[in-house]
Design goal:
- With about 110 residues, the protein is mainly alpha-helical.
- Helix content is about 70%, strand content about 0%.
- It has two domains: about 1-75; about 75-108.
- The protein has helices spanning about 1-15, 20-35, 40-50, 55-70, 85-105.
């Protein structure tokens, strides 16, 4: 998730929002402390730490869903907490499910 937040900050900067390194660090600290499970709290933490000027709010509001989805908790890499063996098991299960869906599609 840290990489996604860093990419979001870079995109805001590219769109003209002035964000200092200290403000970026504040954003990481705030989201780390407040968590990411409650979408509105997560969004408010980023907005509060990254947006200083009212004129930048629309840019933030337009870009936030592009990086963190439009509903529910922000996108998370659920596989990051899996062991390599668990990741392989998940990949195998997904491949098997995909193959099953392909076969069912051909039978229709």
């Amino acid at each position: 998730m840290e990489e996604r937040i860093a990419d979001f900050i870079a995109a805001l900067r590219a769109a003209g929002v002035r964000i200092s390194i200290a403000e970026s660090e504040d954003a990481f600290r705030a989201t780390d402390r407040l968590g990411m499970k409650e979408r509105q709290v997560f969004q408010d933490a980023l907005r509060t730490t990254l947006v200083k000027e009212n004129q930048d709010r629309p840019t933030f509001d337009r870009m936030f869903p592009l990086y963190f989805g439009s509903g529910g908790p922000p996108l998370q890499d659920l596989a990051q907490d899996l062991t390599p063996e668990e990741r392989e098991m998940l990949a195998q299960a997904l491949r098997a499910l995909l193959e099953q869906m392909r076969r069912q599609g051909q039978e229709s």
